[in-house]
Each structure stands twice: as structure tokens, then as C-alpha cells.
């Protein structure tokens, strides 16, 4: 039987780790992890772009793997470890990818930057940052409307070299 329009959506209790901190919450089963992080936890670094999984603006790491937050339900993240841009730095010390994005001027408006950085971290961790062509291919799911692609590619390659030392 389908629920009536306006009927209360089913609710589920989830427990997950977000940026190293345990979180427990009661959520509607249909809530995306993007909306949960932004609206319930106040983590506004993750941005809502297309809301269809096509732009990569809402990229976050779930158990170290990149995922579009608009495509994952909060209930699917129960028991998992999530990292957003707010959790990437180590206190006041920026992650090497964040530092490289600054050095290489790999952002203009900044809207896509959190998703680009988290995708870059995953790209490097996955071993897909060996050349400009490889970086461009594996970062192609993240759109930059300002067209900072050359700087983004340079930042990924630079941070890869620094992280390998």
C-alpha cells in the first residue's frame, strides 16, 4: 500500500562517523546524506549543485571512497565513516591537496572547490594521478563552471608529488 500524500515519511535512526566524530540521528528514510550534512549538522562546505549526480559539487568521502552526496541516502551511510571538506584538515594544518589548491590558484568562485578537493584526494588515493591526462579523466565527474581545470590538474599533480615524499 502506498502512503497517502502528506502522510508522515518513515523515520530511521542512524549512527555514523562524520569527520572523526560519532553522530546519531533520527532521519526520514528519503533524506539524502547531502541534505542531512547541510541541514541537520550544519556542514555547509558540501554544496548542492545539480542534485542529480552530474556535477560533483556535493562530493564527499564515504569510507574513503568518493561519492556524490545527492545520490546517497543518509540511511545508506549508517555505520560508515564520512569525510567532508570540514574534516579534511588536521586542526589548523591544511591537507596537502588543500595547500596545493591554494598554491596553484585552483579555484575561482570557490563553489565547486570542496567537491573538487575531496575528489582529488580520492583520485590520488586510488592511484589515478600519474599524468595530466589521467587526472583529467578521473576528475571528469567534477564540473568547474569557471574553467579552472588546468590549475586543478596542476594542484592534483603537485599534491601527489608532495604526498609521495
Write out the strand line-up for the largest beta sheet, numbering strands in chain order.
2-1-5-3-4
Mean pLDDT: 93
The sequence of SSEs as H and E is EEHEEEHHHH
CATH class of the largest domain: Alpha Beta
Structural class: alpha+beta
Shape: globular
Rg for CA atoms: 17 Å
Task: Briefly note the CATH topology name of the largest domain.
Answer: Ubiquitin-like (UB roll)
C-alpha end-to-end distance:
59 Å
Number of strands: 5
Task: Give an overview in words.
The chain has two domains: 11-87, Beta-grasp domain (Ubiquitin-like (UB roll)); 96-164, [2Fe-2S]-binding domain (DNA polymerase, domain 1, Orthogonal Bundle), CATH 1.10.150. Helices cover 32% and strands 16% of the residues. Strand 3 (59-62) and strand 4 (65-68) form a beta hairpin. A five-stranded mixed beta sheet has the order 2-1-5-3-4, with helices on one face. The termini are far apart. The relative contact order is 0.15. It has helices at 33-40, 96-103, 113-125, 132-138, 149-164, and strands spanning 11-18, 21-28, 59-62, 65-68, 81-83.
Gist of the model:
The chain is of the alpha+beta class. Helices cover 32% and strands 16% of the residues.
Give the SSE layout:
Elements: E1 11-18, E2 21-28, H1 33-40, E3 59-62, E4 65-68, E5 81-83, H2 96-103, H3 113-125, H4 132-138, H5 149-164
Notable characteristics:
DNA polymerase, domain 1; five-stranded mixed sheet; 5 strands; 32% helix
Amino acid at each position: 500500500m502506498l502512503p497517502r500524500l502528506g502522510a508522515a515519511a518513515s523515520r530511521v535512526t542512524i549512527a555514523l562517523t562524520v569527520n572523526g566524530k560519532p553522530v546519531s540521528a533520527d532521519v526520514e528514510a528519503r533524506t539524502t546524506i547531502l541534505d542531512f550534512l547541510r541541514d541537520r549538522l550544519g556542514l555547509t562546505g558540501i554544496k548542492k549543485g545539480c542534485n542529480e549526480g552530474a556535477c560533483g559539487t556535493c562530493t564527499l568521502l564515504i569510507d574513503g571512497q568518493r561519492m556524490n552526496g545527492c545520490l546517497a541516502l543518509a540511511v545508506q551511510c549508517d555505520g560508515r565513516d564520512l569525510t567532508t571538506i570540514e574534516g579534511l584538515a588536521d586542526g589548523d594544518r591544511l591537507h596537502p591537496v588543500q595547500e596545493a589548491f591554494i598554491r596553484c590558484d585552483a579555484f575561482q568562485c570557490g563553489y565547486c572547490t570542496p567537491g573538487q578537493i575531496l575528489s582529488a584526494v580520492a583520485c590520488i588515493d586510488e592511484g589515478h594521478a600519474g599524468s595530466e591526462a589521467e587526472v583529467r579523466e578521473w576528475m571528469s565527474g567534477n564540473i568547474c563552471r569557471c574553467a579552472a581545470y588546468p590549475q586543478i590538474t596542476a594542484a592534483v599533480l603537485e599534491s601527489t608529488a608532495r604526498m609521495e615524499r
